[in-house]
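Posting this for the archive.
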Amino acid sequence: MPDGAAPVLEVRGLKTVFRTRGGEMHAANSVSFHLNRGEVLGVGGESGSGKSVTMMSLIGLLPSPPAEIRDGAVLLGERDLLKIPPDELCHVRGAKVGFVFQDPMTSLNPVFTVGMQIMEPLREHMGMTKAQAEARAVELLELVGIPDARSRLKSYPHQFSGGMRQRVMIAIALACDPDVLIADEPTTALDVTIQAQIMELVKELRQKLGMAIIWITHDLGVIAAVADRVMVMYGGQVVEHGPVKEIFADPRHPYTRALLKTIPSIAGAREARLQVIEGQPPILSAAPTACPFRARCAHAMAVCEAENPARRAVDGAPLGHGHDVACHWTPPAREGAGHA
């Protein structure tokens, strides 16, 4: 991003709560980050760490009730998406922010053709005629690598393979040339070969279209392959953030280090068994006042019980623009991920 250029998306202090019969669940706790034009931000962490809830909160995809956004700002350009009317937010979802969900079979409508589902946002948000939308739908299917695109417009979702359905979902998300594409674990339900194809496709689209991408995944290996920066979440908050190469070379949070040790390796020496992170992510009935990872952390101290650590810069860069971490413990400098 050029010096001084404003981010395409900026999130400040986002707090999302679910009201349930058993009480409140604090799913996103003061989450702050930014996204620059043309870059890929990888968001990592276990299931239940708050990744998807945070990203769905940005564009109003959570049902309310039970979800409630208590605080924060989501700036897309100069507009705060948390303050605009519902009909305007619907337009933003269709035209400015594309969203690719985990399971394309449940995301695509089984009773409408693929062509109709691609053409709908084009006619709704771009004001295209039927003929214009159909021509654009063919271009989009070709862009995402689906052969014989014109004839496939008449096909139904069940007539596509899992990988092809995911390509259709990406085509729909790209239909209106969005500024931001959010991909929520888009390769989770696919086999390894198709995963690699989808990741390569997204990288190609980023180069061709110059859009900004948020890639949500529990697999840090995927983040290493596609992202420029990584944001690790735990307990509904950001625990470490920074350039991918820096985080992988010198992780500073015990949770990030533990996640990296769970990645299988086929090169070099490795332990006989993959390491696991004992325990489960917390279910937060209140905003955390202590470190949410303390019960699973080998480096927990008394201060971890007394105070939830704030994010602090590791490399001297302004907070959020370099390597930062939310942890009371300081590991030895430049200690790699492979060390305890």
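The first helix runs from residue 51 to 58. Residues 336-340 have pLDDT under 50 and may be disordered.
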